[in-house]
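Annex B.
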Amino acid sequence: MGIPETILGQLVQVFKSEGIERHTEEELMERLGIQQSDYNALFSGKADMVRQVVQHDLYLGEQRDQELLQSARNPVEEIILLLLHGIKELQAISPAYIYDMQQYHPQVWQLCLDHLNSYNHDLNFGVLNKGVVQGYFRKDINLQLVTKIILEQFNLIINPHVFPPDRYDMGEVFRSIYLYYVRGLCTDKGSRLAEEYFSKNNI
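TetR/AcrR family transcriptional regulator: predicted structure tokens.
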């Protein structure tokens, strides 16, 4: 991993745990031990820095998704692992991270939404389609519609007007919406695997 990737990774951790707007550029440079000249070589300003950090985070997320899919034994486990990872991610992220993006960096927030509607759409569609072909998910489901619903449910979860983060635990909201929805998609074959996985992992 090169120096730029290391710095971006460190900034991802700071932003996700403390929010984007809590620290000035100067404070971030001091905290990470970055010289002004090195900072200027990497970023044209704070907006560019935030954009690069979020893009790096999205890239890391794609890598983690592929690792999860490779560890799964079937499409039911794939979709559950992806959803559980989403729960853990939301529980670990400070509400200020999403709020700051929405309020102060709308172009970067739009980048996240575009990623959700392209990469995440294709990822979920592929898993669901494979599950239907292999007999784990019901053949009568509308794949495009179900994929759209899954993505819109995520948009619902991260809407602070619907679920204010100071009133709702994001991980619990995620679990309540998604994990019960998965059961309705499964055939008897898939449902048995889902129930077994839920029970085994205390979900």
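The mean pLDDT is 91. The domain at 3-200 is CATH 1.10.357.10 (Tetracycline Repressor; domain 2). Further annotation is deferred to the next reporting cycle.
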